[in-house]
Design brief:
The protein is mostly helical and 264 residues long. The protein has helices spanning 8-34, 44-48, 55-93, 98-106, 113-131, 138-145, 147-160, 163-172, 177-206, 209-213, 219-227, 231-263. The longest helix has 39 residues, at 55-93.
């Protein structure tokens, strides 16, 4: 039988084109950060990031990065402990509600961030009075904007695993619902949960509009402030954030492969 997929040469060409699409802007940004005032290249700009004398200049970035990491943790917790259990519950007990649930969860992707802020502003006014104006409260808004992306990742794992059969088999052996979810269903959904966590972290680290309009200091808003002082700083911290997400992707991919081998 003749192969129906693309040839090896075609796959290589597609891979090189896609790789160049992502690599060229990143390499250009890296080269830009390595330029010095004399037309040469040096790591002087990178060394200034860790220079104690420049600590005050870059302090907004470190503060914003810390806030963004806290937001990432809280947002991932919302995805794992609110969205994922709800999806399991809907798929097992109320499958007829899945289309309506999917519509509601995917709705934020069609609403511009500026429109979301208009609706969230009065809500955050009350949140500020009740819980304070700390940056971590943005996690409630971020939990909404990551819903469509996290839902797709988790739902792909749910569709790949027959949760109903697994749950019924575990229940027939005497397992309670906590044991069914934690010991049977979650291991079969781990790849989707890890992917949803990665997407949530990436969205939180890259979000600017909501944080800016709600007057919260996060990584992206801090980069705008520092960019007015040092044009190289925003590019360097952007590269560092991308490198962090890339390493996180490798860790998640390795964990997912390890899980697959253990389950097989």
């Amino acid at each position: 039988m003749r192969p129906t997929g693309p040839s090896t040469a075609t796959r290589w060409i597609i891979g090189l084109l896609v790789g160049a699409f992502f690599a060229i802007p990143l390499l250009s940004t890296l080269v830009y950060t390595l330029r010095d005032g004399e037309g040469g290249f040096s790591f002087a700009q990178w060394a200034e990031l860790f220079d104690p004398s420049q600590a005050q200049v870059y302090s907004p970035v470190w503060t914003g990065l810390g806030n963004s990491l806290v937001l990432a943790v809280v947002t991932v917790a919302i995805v794992l402990f609110v969205l994922a259990p709800t999806m399991i519950f809907v798929n097992l007990r109320f499958p007829r509600l899945r289309p309506a649930f999917e519509f509601v969860v995917l709705l934020p992707i069609s609403i511009p961030a500026i429109v979301l802020v208009v609706g969230l502003a009065p809500i955050y006014l009350q949140i500020g009075r009740t819980l304070g104006t700390g940056a971590w409260t943005l996690a409630f808004a971020y939990g909404i904007i990551v819903l469509p992306f996290a839902y797709r990742s988790i739902q792909a794992s749910i569709d790949a695993a027959d949760l109903r059969t697994l749950a019924e088999a575990a229940r027939s052996l005497g397992a309670g619902w906590p044991s069914v979810v934690l010991q049977v269903l979650v291991p079969n959904m781990r790849q989707g949960l890890l992917a949803a966590s990665l997407i949530s972290v990436a969205v939180v680290l890259g979000e600017f509009t909501i944080a800016s309009l709600l007057n919260r200091q996060v990584l992206q808003t801090a980069l705008v402030v520092v960019n007015k002082i040092d044009a190289y700083a925003a590019s360097m911290f952007t590269l560092l954030a991308l490198a962090f997400c890339f390493l996180l992707l490798l860790v998640i991919g390795r964990a997912a492969r390890g899980t697959g081998k253990a389950m097989s």
